[in-house]
Amino acid sequence: VGYALAIVSCIAQGSAFELGRRVAQKKQGVAQVLYANSVVAIGLQIVLLLGTGEYTHLAPATLTGEVLVHFALNSVSCLAMNYVIFLNCLVNSPLAHAVTGNIKAALTTLFGVMLFAAPLTAYGWVGVFANFGGAAWFTALKMAPKTRLPTGTTAADRV
């Protein structure tokens, strides 16, 4: 289940980054880009909540002051993170951002294993090697000598 959710996450992130890039190319403001990404994310979250049955755990939640403070802090940090990701995707490609995130996830997993002496299962090792393998493949494609592209293709078709 974890790998299926990771694949869904990668597809959703890539789609959100590409949507943000396209909206930004149309010279839309930051607010419009973040709004478009939020609308896409809410739809996907609703589908996942209903599809997995996770929505049943939402009903008994109690809204204490502590919960509301945590919710507000989380909302502000997510807003700041989305804004920084938007700025990053203006400078770098969305794919480069996603690959960097995969490398960070793999390194974080390895550091966690080393620092906390936590065992890593075979599935965990497959995930770490898949992240590093994808990053190496992306780097090899980006560093390959630029050759003349066939008629009707763009540089984006190479990646």
Automatic annotation (TrEMBL):
Task: Keyword check for Signal, yes or no.
Answer: no
In the bilayer, the protein is annotated as: Multi-pass membrane protein
Q: InterPro entries from the entry?
A: TPT_transporter (IPR050186)
Lineage, top-rank taxon, reads Eukaryota
Q: Which UniProt keywords apply?
A: Membrane, Transmembrane, Transmembrane helix
Endpoints of the signal sequence: none
Main location per the UniProt record: membrane
Does the keyword Ligase belong to this entry? no
Q: Which GO terms describe its cellular component?
A: membrane
Compartments, as annotated in UniProt: Membrane
User: Which spans are transmembrane here?
Assistant: 30-51, 71-91, 98-116, 122-141
> What is the name of the protein in this document?
Sugar phosphate transporter domain-containing protein
User: Which species is this record about?
Assistant: Neobodo designis
Q: Which lineage ranks, top first, belong to the organism behind this chain?
A: Eukaryota, Discoba, Euglenozoa, Kinetoplastea, Metakinetoplastina
